[in-house]
Amino acid sequence: MQLTSGLLILLVSAVVYDLSLGSVPISWSTIFKSLVNYDASSSEEMTVHIFRVPRVFTAVFTGVALSIAGLLMQTLFQNPLAGPYVLGINSGASLLVALSTMTGFSLFSSEVNTISAALIGALGSGLFILLCSLYVKNKVSLLLVGIMFGSFAGALVNVVQSYSSPDDLKLFMLWSFGSLQNVELAQLPVFGGIVLIGLVLSLFIIKPLNLLVLGEANASFLGVRVKFTRFSILFITAILTGVSTAYCGPIAFVGLIVPNIAKMIYKTTNHFYLLIGTLLLGGLMIVSCDILMNLLQPYLSIPLNALTALMGAPLVVWIIIKRF
Amino acid sequence: MLEFQDIKIGYKEVLFRVPDMQLNKGQLVTLIGPNGSGKTTFLNTVLGLQQPVSGKLFFNGGTLDEMTKGSKASLLSHVSSKFSGVNYLSVYDLIAMGRAPYTNMLNVLTAADDSVVNRVMDQLDLQGIATKSTTEISDGERQIAMIGKALAQETEIIILDEPTAFLDYNNRRKVVRILKSIALEQNKLIILTSHDLELCFGHSDKVLGVDKNNKLLKVFDSAAPKEQIIQEIFGKY
Questions:
Q1: Which of A45, A112, B68, B119 could crosslink A34 through cysteines, CB 3.0-4.6 Å?
Q2: Using N-to-C axis directions, what is the helix angle for A254-266 and A271-296, rounded to 10°?
Q3: Of A221, A225, A268, the CB nearest to B88
């Protein structure tokens, strides 16, 4: 309880501090005023509304989404090194984004923007994995199908890249860097709403999740409907990973590390606490990354996806050395 | 309470035939047989993970197909031969998992559940390691904790697949004694497979042996001479 409230306070203060950061300095009073009593004629208050609020909340939402998805994958596969991307959902998104940015790809005879392309790709690959889960008996086979699907989509992206112009290639590279700045204020409720749906659905499967740490066979003897639970986990992971990849591009390592940190500090396998801890730490993690990027901005500019990997890879090595 | 009718065990191909018989509460039943004779297949059939090739199995007069997942979970519990522990899962929490078929959606233990878990831990003498992680205790303690989980599930039948396979002599004796006393005092039907013949002959009320050559399950009572059982099941060497 103390731990949870501590994390909550930390997250809220990180969010507030992050709102004060940006390319132009804006006073605390202006930020506060723009939040409670918005005046569209003030350019400073407009900056807060158009750039900062979307950026900071996107950071929270994407952190929560990826971390919860990672926790579910780790429990399903009984493996602390599983993450939201092991099933290739991000690769499906990458493929569609590659097609939309680097070829004349269009759907229903209209241009597809990056976010819709990523969303279609993510949901398509999520659906593919869900269908596979109905036919594949063994969850390790499912993992392999996911990894193979990821490599296959990755190879197709390479093919598309080899035929594209330098400008298009750059556009795609920028997407793959990951960014918190592509979301507009009006899109926030959609993003937040989908993350909330994922969270609420996770609450419904807390009991099966708690029992799955003993493996599917043992869980089944304790009354868990294994196939249904597996399907629910995949569904939740697909929508959370899908929406996050659509709005922010791929973000490495967060979904892998955050659940591990949550397990370490909560020291439990009860998913009620793990979900809360993962949710708070996930938001905190990406908001901290955003704070770091903003503070470093005058000196060097690191893409989000690179920053999380730079911090994440050493952490994963540490987890491996400590545990195995 | 557990009644076999014309059962043939196997997967597509018949491994062995089970004579019509009834296993009752309060009994410790040991299943023996050479490797590959179908002991695990037999257990899986009782657990409902696999259908028999032919015949019917009745639990208190009903079949497993008629039961919901929840009522199965309060009828049958299972202990596997090896559990390597889970990080941050304490012994108390492991045993409390046995209460899962009875808890609400959030898996919150009621005071009644809590007292069941504590009673089980008293019986198995696990109170001293209640808060320890299941990765930090010995193999013997872990196996006894898994038995505790099955006990907390309060099922009429407990099925154990080679529960003593990875234990040293003392822990094997301890586990078999515990199982024997549970069957007697708590009036449960306990079915286990084992290669530990000496230990099991001493404590079992019934020994079931798979006769691989005649594709038949033979039933011996506790008075049957060991030499005869061994010869009929494992043959001469």
A1: A45
A2: 130
A3: A268
Nearest CA of chain A to the CA of B234: how many Å?
Answer: 31
Rounded to the nearest angstrom, the minimum Cα separation between A207 and chain B is: 5
Q: Is B219 helix (H, G, I), strand (E, B) or coil?
A: strand
The per-residue pLDDT for range B178-219, each reduced to its tens digit, is: 899 999 999 999 999 988 887 778 888 999 999 888 888 989
Please indicate if any CB of chain A lies within 8 Å of the CB of B73: yes
Spatial CA neighbour of A61 closest among A276, A303, A282: A282
Q: Do B107 and A218 touch (CB under 8 A)?
A: no
- Where are the domains positioned within chain B? 86-154
Per DSSP, the three-state class of A81 is: coil
Q: Which positions in chain B touch A224 (Cβ < 8 Å)?
A: 69, 100
pLDDT level of residue A7 (50, 70, 90 thresholds): very high
Give me the residue label for tokens 């009984």. A78
Helix axes A271-296, A188-204, angle to 10 degrees: 150
CA distance B78 to B206: 19
Question: Rounded mean pLDDT of A189-215?
Answer: 95
Tokens (6 digits) for A195: 């993350």
pLDDT score for B31: 93
Domains in chain A (CATH in brackets) are 2-323 (1.10.3470.10)
Which residues 88-107 of B are in CB contact (within 8 Å) with A?
88-89, 93, 97-98, 100-101, 103, 105-107
Residues B45, B34 contacting (CB under 8 angstroms): no
How far is the first Cα of chain B from the last one, in angstroms, to the nearest whole number? 38
Mean pLDDT on A130-153: 88
Is the CB of B98 less than 8 angstroms away from the CB of A222?
yes
| Facing A207 at nearest CB: one of B80, B86, B100 | B100
Q: Tell me which DSSP letter residue B62 carries.
A: B
Which ranges of chain B have pLDDT less than 50? none
> What number is the ipTM of this complex?
0.90
pTM: 0.91
| Residue written as token pair 């990755």 | A154
Chain B residues close to A218, C-beta within 8 Å: 78, 80
pLDDT score at B189: 95
Cα separation, A322 vs A316, in Å, equals 10
Task: Give exposure, B18-46, as e/b (b: 16+ Cβ within 10 Å).
Answer: beeeebeeebbbbbbbeeebbbbbbbbbb
Contact B42, B218 (CB under 8 A): no
Chain-centroid distance of CA A189 in Å reads 16
- Select from A206, A268, A323 the Cβ nearest to the Cβ of B106: A206
CB contact under 8 A, B100 and A223: yes
Residue partners of B205: CB distance under 8 A and separation at least 6: B26, B27, B28, B29, B183, B221, B222
